[in-house]
Amino acid sequence: MKSITISAPGKLMLLGEHAVVYNRPCIVTAVGQRMYITISELSEDFMELEAVDVNVVGYKKPLKDIGMGEVPKGAKFVEMAVANFKAKYGIQGGIRITTKSEFSSLFGFGSSSASTVCVLKGLASLTETKMSNKELFSLAYKTVLDVQGKGSGFDVAAAIYGGTLYFVTGGTTIEPILVEKLPLVVGYTGVKADTVSLIKSVAEKAVRYPELIDTFYTQIGKMVDTAHTAFKIQDWKHVGEIMNLDQGVLEALGVGSTRLAALIYAARDAGALGAKLSGAGIGDCMIAFVSSEKKKAVEEAITNAGGQVLDVASNVSGVQVEKSI
Ligand code: MEV
User: Fold this and answer.
1) Confidence at residue 110, expressed as pLDDT on a 0 to 100 scale
2) Which residues line ligand 1 at a C-beta cut-off of 6 Å?
C-alpha cells in the first residue's frame, strides 16, 4: 500500500488585503511554518481522517458519500478537496489522511488553504495524476470557495508557489517577487480573526458607500503596485512607508482594532520602517518591516504592548513531497 507525505507553507499578507477580493493586486509571502499531510492507500472504499490539531479524531466516511451530509468543522476543507479531486480525476480504493500542523490555526497563517493544497497534491501523486501548478491552483481555489464562499485565493497561491508573490484575485496574475530575505517582524494579537465575517462587514460598507469604498480599493491597489516596484529593488524604507499608508485605508474600511493599533504604534515608535495589520484585520497578526539595527527594539516594543512576537521565516518554498513509500 502506497503512502505519501506532502507539506505546504502558511502565508502572511504583506499588502493589499480586502482590495484583493475585488480584482486588485496584493503581495503575500509564504511563511516557514508548514502543514504536513500524509495520505495512505486503504483497501476499503473509505476516507479516514485524523486531524488532531483541529479536533478531528477517528472520522470515517464511505468514499461514495464524500462531500455530502454532515461534516465536522475541522474536516471541511480536507473532505471538500477529496470530493473535488474524486469528481475530476477519480479515486480507486480508499484513503487514510493524517494532518499535522507546525502552526496554530489561531494565527491566521492559512491552515485551511495549506491543507487543501496538500490533500490535492498528495492525491495527484498517489494516483499518478499529472497536475500542473495552475491546475492545482484552480482545484484548490474552487475547494476554498466551495467551503467558505469568498476569498481571493492568495493563500492558496502562497501554499503552492511559496516565496513572495504579486497576486491578483483568483490567480489571474501570480508573479514571484525575487527577494532574498524580508526584514519582517510578526506580532500576534492573541485574538482570532474571522475572515469570512470581516469580508462581509467590508462588503456591507461597500453597499452603503459604493463609490467611496471602491476608491479605497483602487488606492490600495495603487499602493501595492508602487510597493511592488520597491520590493524588486529591496527598498524597504519605501515599502515601510506604503505599509503605513495601507494601514490608514484599512482603518477606514473598519478592520482595525485597539489591539492591533497598540502593537502597530509600538512597532512604529520603536523605529520600524512601517507597520500594519496582516490579513482580515481586527485580530490575528500585525507585521512590521525593520532595519537590522532596530529589530530587537521593535520586537521588545511589541511584547511590551501585549503582543506575542512569532519567530517565523518568510519567503519559504511552496508545496513539496516530503516522503513517498
Ligand atoms: C484575509 O487573510 C485576506 C482577505 O483579503 C481575504 C482574501 O484575500 O481572501 C481579507
Assistant:
1) 87
2) 13, 17-18, 20-21, 151-152, 154, 195, 199, 279-280
